[in-house]
Amino acid sequence: MHQSICALTLLLTLAALSDGYGSNYYCSPSLCPHGGPNVGCHPPPLSGGTFCYGKSPSVIPMTAAIQAHILHLHNYYRSRVASGYQFPLPSAAHMYTMVWDDELATQAGNNARSCVFAHDRCRNTPQFRTSGQNLALLKFYTPTYTVMDLVTSFIGGWWNEYQYTKPAYIQAFPRSQVSQTIGHFTMLVSDRTWKVGCAMQHWVEGKAMKIYFVCNYSFSNIITQQVYTTGAAGSQCQAGMNPSYPGLCRT
């Protein structure tokens, strides 16, 4: 019943957003109260945006295997923190197991196909009104990497920001430039994030190849707010803990 009510609410929201904006509800200003445009309003074509022209752009598909790998890495790292294994960071009382979301992945693709390494101003969806984002870019000259290798490297790079993250930053995400140093890591371990969707774009510049990786999340870092609630690992999990990822709540 709860799922049916949620689905009906989402459909009504989509209908309201579509009113006056045609079929593209991303163009509704209500989705971006802090400023737009929404990256989904006038997204780049599948062939790539203006900055992709002449660079042989191509979308790298997020296959089921790649999606599973992305989720495993997120949940493995989240489990380490939630369980209290990443000293001196505290354990988490209710950190969810991450699951894949196709709409977040679509919005990530709308950014990736721009061939511009930059956060979009707004990527919110009707379901996720405070969507977060992590970006990564790799430039190389010899195509020796598999997509799995790239995903592992990119997410591992975000994770490595843990070494700059103090327990105080978990209690309140900082205003200072420190936030730019730890923001990828805190997105990975936010306990208000439970869904992720990613996209990857490839293009050529001169003799170099570039791979651009974008992951969008169901929630974002909020200055002065907690990254996650500290406490005994999984002590506030309403549906119990995930046996595959100790310390994480079942989703």
TrEMBL record:
InterPro entries found in the cross-reference section: CAP_dom (IPR014044), CAP_sf (IPR035940), CRISP-related (IPR001283), P14a_insect (IPR034763)
Keyword check for rRNA-binding: no
Keywords, ordered alphabetically: Glycoprotein, Secreted, Signal
Highest taxon above the source species: Eukaryota
CC annotations in GO: extracellular region
Residues spanning the membrane: none
CDD domains in alphabetical order: CAP_euk
Family: Belongs to the CRISP family.
Name of this protein: Venom allergen-1
Native source species: Anopheles dirus
Organism lineage: Eukaryota, Metazoa, Ecdysozoa, Arthropoda, Hexapoda
